[in-house]
């Protein structure tokens, strides 16, 4: 086991696979299968992995299942300087998102991924308040702001991303959908806070 310090910001780059969750035929969670998924994905040489995400079918997991699988992932990546575990916070209620983010940070997540709320079309102000609350709760832990308007209908424009990056310089950014790259192009400029990678 490698026990060197992690440079999380350098590790969270390129492709960060979202870990799938295996289930038994009867619908029960398969924790041993999940551990196998983690090991096989890490064996490919990726520098970061994320859980839970859309590909994990997080909406099908209850709180205890999510906690169990997150713990298995963090146990496997703890002390591994060459890979970062990015724990996703897809909760829509801000108080739940903050609690989940704080718990993940305390358990040793290397970074967080925040899915902005999207149920029932929240206002831009509500989305920003949610994101800011999570960022503030875990600062200075690096945070990836998930940008997936095609999946969620929630879009944040480049000036808003610049503003968030200026407020939280350790926040990372991940462009999820190729269709949205043109809209985000200014946010990736190196002369903007948090821009370019």
SSE arrangement:
Blueprint: H1 8-11, H2 31-42, E1 48-51, H3 63-77, E2 84-89, H4 94-107, E3 111-114, H5 124-138, E4 143-147, H6 149-152, H7 158-167, E5 171-175, H8 181-184
CATH topology: TIM Barrel
- Give the strand tally: 5
Structural class: alpha/beta
List low-pLDDT spans: 177-182, 189-197
Arrangement of strands in the largest sheet: 1-2-3-4-5
The CATH first-level class comes to Alpha Beta
Do you know the CATH architecture? Alpha-Beta Barrel
Indicate the mean pLDDT. Answer: 82
Total domain units: 1
Compressed to H and E, one letter per element, the order equals HHEHEHEHEHHEH
What share of residues is helical? 25-40%
Descriptive overview:
The protein is an alpha/beta fold and 197 residues long. The chain has one domain: TIM Barrel, CATH 3.20.20. The chain is built from eight helices and five strands, in the order ααβαβαβαβααβα. The protein has helices spanning 8-11, 31-42, 63-77, 94-107, 124-138, 149-152, 158-167, 181-184; strands spanning 48-51, 84-89, 111-114, 143-147, 171-175. A five-stranded parallel sheet has the order 1-2-3-4-5. Helix 5 (124-138) links the parallel strand 3 and strand 4.
